[in-house]
């Protein structure tokens, strides 16, 4: 009987983490979208790689430090809001530089949503353990990140597209990994789970947008 009670309690805890994660993720996506719209409305310039990375890693550090307190919620909104602000100029660039820019943005958003929902649904319903992907994802993200920086500073379009394609696969894998970790009890902090899923969605959207722009037929 004690085993059954313990199993029930564990199941309830996991469900709570999953519910809280998706509730917070939904709120942060809406807030980030609002910040992106504000950034576009104010016609803010592109933040640049150094400011974007500095802001991201700085706010990520703060979020991780306060992940077990109410301050962690504020840190998550600060992080996702900042990332939304950096996204605004990018979306604005696509809508002005491409004759079908609005369609490209809509397609990237739709593709991102379908990929996220499909992979999340599969991970939850199948209950499969994707923890084996941890090492591959860590190494792959580091390599792709460094390659992306090289492509940015040395203006290498072909490498940049390769990195975008790699990030589509890596972020898809990260969604599977994180969702699996939640439902199997490996991830118990919904704040950090939200951050991981948000960044996966953010990078997935940007990568799809870049690929769609490259293959849109316009220079």
Q: TL;DR of this structure?
A:
The chain has 219 residues and is mainly α. 83% of the residues lie in helices and 0% in strands.
Structure write-up:
The chain is mainly α and 219 residues long. The chain has one domain. 83% of the residues lie in helices and 0% in strands. The protein has 7 helices and no strands. The chain has helices at residues 2-41, 49-65, 71-97, 101-126, 134-153, 157-183, 190-214. It is globular. InterPro entries: Bax_inhibitor_1-related. Keywords: Cell membrane, Membrane, Transmembrane, Transmembrane helix.
Largest sheet: none
Q: How many separate structural domains?
A: 1
Secondary structure class reads mainly alpha
Tell me the strand percentage band. under 5%
Amino- and carboxy-terminal Cα gap = 67 Å
Transmembrane segments: 21-38, 44-62, 74-98, 104-124, 136-155, 161-178, 190-212
Main location: membrane
InterPro entries: Bax_inhibitor_1-related
Subcellular location: Cell membrane
Give the secondary structure arrangement, pairings included.
Layout: H1 2-41, H2 49-65, H3 71-97, H4 101-126, H5 134-153, H6 157-183, H7 190-214
Helix pairs in contact: 1-3, 1-7, 2-3, 3-4, 3-7, 4-6, 4-7, 5-6, 6-7
């Amino acid at each position: 009987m004690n085993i059954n009670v313990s199993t029930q309690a564990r199941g309830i805890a996991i469900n709570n983490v999953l519910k809280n994660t998706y509730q917070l993720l939904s709120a942060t996506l809406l807030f980030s979208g609002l910040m992106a719209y504000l950034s576009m409305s104010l016609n803010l310039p592109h933040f640049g790689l150094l400011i974007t990375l500095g802001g991201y890693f700085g706010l990520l550090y703060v979020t991780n430090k306060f992940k077990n307190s109410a301050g962690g919620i504020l840190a998550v909104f600060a992080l996702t809001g900042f990332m939304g602000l950096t996204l605004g100029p990018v979306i604005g660039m696509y809508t002005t530089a491409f004759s079908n820019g609005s369609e490209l943005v809509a397609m990237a958003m739709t593709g991102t949503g379908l990929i996220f929902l499909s992979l999340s649904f599969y991970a939850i319903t199948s209950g499969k353990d994707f923890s084996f992907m941890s090492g591959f994802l860590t190494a792959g993200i580091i390599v792709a990140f460094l390659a992306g920086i090289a492509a940015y500073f040395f203006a290498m379009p072909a490498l940049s597209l390769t990195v975008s394609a790699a990030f589509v696969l890596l972020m898809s894998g990260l969604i599977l990994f994180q969702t699996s970790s939640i439902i199997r009890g490996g991830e118990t902090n919904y704040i950090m789970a939200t951050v991981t899923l948000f960044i996966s969605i953010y990078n997935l959207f940007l990568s799809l947008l870049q690929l769609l722009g490259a293959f849109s037929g316009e220079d």
